[in-house]
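Appendix B. Extra example for self-study. Work through it before the problem class; the solution is given directly after the inputs so you can check yourself.
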Amino acid sequence: MLGNIQTYLSAFIVGGIICSIGQVLIDRTKLTSARILVAFVTLGVVLTALGIYQKIVDIGGAGATVPLTGFGYTLAKGAFRDVDQYGLLGAFTGGIKAAATGITAAIFFGYLASVAFRPKAKR
Amino acid sequence: MASKRNGKQTVKIQTPVSIASSACIVGPKEGQGPLRLYFDEIIEDEFWGEESWEKAESKLLRETFAKIINKASKTVNDIQYVIAGDLLNQCIATSFGLRESGIPFLGLYGACSTMAESMSVGAMLVEGGFADNLICVTSSHFCSAEKQFRFPLELGGQRPPTAQWTVTGSGGVMLSNQGTGPYIKHVTTGKIVDMGIKDANNMGAAMAPAAADTILTHFKDTGLKPEAYDLIITGDLGKLGKTICDELLRNQDLDISSRYNDCGAMIFDLERQDVHSGGSGCGCAASVLSGFVLNEMKKGTLNNVLLVATGALLSPTSTQQGESIPCIAHAVSISRNLS
Amino acid sequence: MEKILTKQEYVKYVEEKSPKSKLARNMTRAFVVGGLICVIGQLISNLLRTRGFSQEIVSNLTTMIMVFLGALFTGLNIYDELGRFAGAGSIVPITGFANSIVSPAMEFKSEGYVLGVGARMFVVAGPVLVYGISVSVVVGIIYYLLRF
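Solution. Structure tokens for the complete assembly:
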């Protein structure tokens, strides 16, 4: 009832591959994690625009949407949808509209967490 | 040349300047390291009952300062100067820690070389007859340093194997024109050396040429041989920096390897403690000096020591602007005997 | 020092001397942890789908729950430990995006709720939004131009 095992397997593999690409970038290029995140989001937008990322999502499911490239996918898809609907204005409304849940959730839960918790030293 | 100068960068301390007392307080991680038995106090939690990392660091420095005075059986009124610094912007750990001390204060910034820098200035002040007793003290705190120089603590990520771990700790000494030693004999003040390393996660390699430069100059200026010392100890080059410094010196026909060690490589167990290349921070050289070195000198296992504390003079801004890292190393030679 | 070695020589020497990250080990860890986080995402979205939500609601709710989990585990001081083990495996998923917002917010609480938490929250995540959104506008405009 929770979908067949196939969906989990492909999510695991596709998500794993995307993350290991990130690891290669970290280890071999001295990019900080902030730059990696920027690169992945941008890459996600561009690949979606080129029609490639949709295919990865079709195969990987959450394995493609959970990584930050998926955030770029959401942004680009939203922009296209709104362009279809409202014309040029859609390029400015679509992205954030589609990604609103993620952004708002991160800000809101982030605020709550900062109120509730205290940082701890690494040992 | 001024009569007390000895070569290009070195000063000879002629009237005895004695290290009257020393103290250090370190954090829990340092307290699990191989030198744990040498520290005066090990705090159990990095906040130490304070509201912020910065306040905790100030408390470390303040309590260390009080311990140094107590251990010398002096009072605040006997101290004429306190010479101190730390890693935080505008040296706030120091100035807030010493806010209530009521002693003339000279603030220094030498990054992780601050301990040797303050002792250099202090020794010259005492030798020159400008003070009877003064205190040199520094501190660093892993969490406040991470916050200022790197990323928030809770941000998940990996450090490269060349990265070093900022020591949570404070250490210091009282210098006096009386007392039975150990004595400060020479001060070699380093010059800024920048060999083009830009990676802020590889400070050991950035600082190693500065350390090698100061060590070379020290032997050239004084005419001494490495055999004059039982221990030559660099500040916080860590494992990689130590290897590089040793090789640089050997290329210059100066072999110190049999008596060479590094505070950053000693303070942690590099295999067990996940600190990558070793310790760093003002508190690293300070706590290894006032904990390990001076206690071993008291016991008589070490007689002559050359402390070469190293500092990377970078800021997050300079790193973001793609600048390479200017570095410095200051040497202070300490001996049990006057002659 | 420059008399013996030029800066270029020294930088090259240091590069050879510096220990490299254990790439194979790190990649394996990133693969497994990153993959597992995605499996959790898949599980959540499959669960929601069986409840009969539409695709759009499913993907929005999944994102929200993943972000919540990322924020929660950051607050519980667990996510940084995970990141130390997994590297990109926990940085790249959307939970890592949440971590990059929550961690500075917690850290800078000592500077107050407005200029500390409020302002510093986007130290790491801000660039992600700036570039993600800007590029989405650019591709949106290009799409618009190509369509007509």
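Self-check: The radius of gyration of chain C is 21 Å. If your reasoning did not lead you there, revisit section 3.
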